[in-house]
Design goal:
The protein is mainly β. Helices cover about 10% and strands about 55% of the residues. It has a five-stranded antiparallel sheet with strand order 3-2-1-5-4, with no helix packed on it. It is globular, with a radius of gyration of 14 Å.
Length: about 60
Amino acid sequence: MSWPFSTHNIIYPKERIWAPVRIIHETDKAILVDNGRKTWIPKSQIYGIRLKNNAFEIYVKESSA
């Protein structure tokens, strides 16, 4: 269990966001998405996928979106 106010969380904050994307192609290791530009996102950086208002959103680190 991770403590909410631990030193690690202060030094390395969790910067994750839900980003609306259009999924173009999927491989075993990555997903090609279009969010204004085409980008390969490794599956290891994807923490969730949901369908909201007929649009896919992925939960990723902010630097990946």
